[in-house]
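Summary of Year 1 activities. Much of the first year was spent building the evaluation harness for sequence design. The harness presents a backbone, in tokenized form, and records the residue chosen at every position. We chose the following record to illustrate the format because it has been used consistently in internal testing since the harness was completed.
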């Protein structure tokens, strides 16, 4: 058990962290890419309070027991893969900065990234983009759908429900137009 990594930088792969606090605390302008790993965090998975650089998350499994797997107060975060689950709160929380979920590339992938919260999958006070993945929450998938300001070309936001281990989640994902 560790208390997390303060100011990580570089490329992180195949790391396993179990922490009773935050797993990562990003406060300076370092380049960071998380490609894989298993992160079981007591509070926030990754807390971002850095502007000027971009963090890329291409994979990894993040679970927050009481906090938020992705908590963005400043900075740019591009999530193109991975699983982000909160057992007690939001899957992702953004109050300032930039959040891009998925890649603006060929096709729409609904299997990854996965963002899931006990209340909302994504709670945001600013606009963010959605190109791939699925967002789940028990209360609702997102706190305010109008905050999704950019989506993949020729796609439509689709909502529904999904039952996981007896719990019903509200879902939000993109579907190509005409399907």
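For this record, the design step produced the sequence shown next.
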């Amino acid at each position: 058990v560790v208390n997390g990594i303060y100011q990580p930088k570089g490329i992180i792969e195949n790391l396993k962290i179990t922490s009773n606090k935050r797993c990562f605390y990003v406060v300076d302008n370092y380049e960071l890419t998380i490609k894989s790993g298993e992160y079981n965090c007591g509070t926030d998975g990754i807390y971002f309070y850095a502007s000027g650089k971009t963090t890329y998350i291409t994979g990894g499994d993040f679970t927050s027991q009481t906090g938020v797997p992705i908590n963005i107060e400043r900075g740019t975060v591009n999530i193109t893969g991975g699983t982000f689950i909160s057992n007690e709160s939001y899957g992702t929380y953004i109050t300032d900065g930039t959040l891009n979920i998925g890649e603006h590339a060929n096709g729409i992938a609904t299997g990854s990234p996965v963002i899931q919260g006990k209340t909302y999958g994504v709670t945001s006070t600013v606009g963010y983009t959605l190109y791939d993945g699925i967002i789940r929450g028990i209360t609702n998938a997102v706190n305010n759908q109008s905050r999704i300001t950019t989506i993949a070309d020729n796609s439509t936001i689709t909502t529904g429900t999904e039952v996981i281990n007896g719990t019903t989640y509200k879902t939000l994902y993109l579907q190509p137009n005409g399907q």
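The mean pLDDT is 90. Quantitative recovery figures across the full test set are reported in Table 2.
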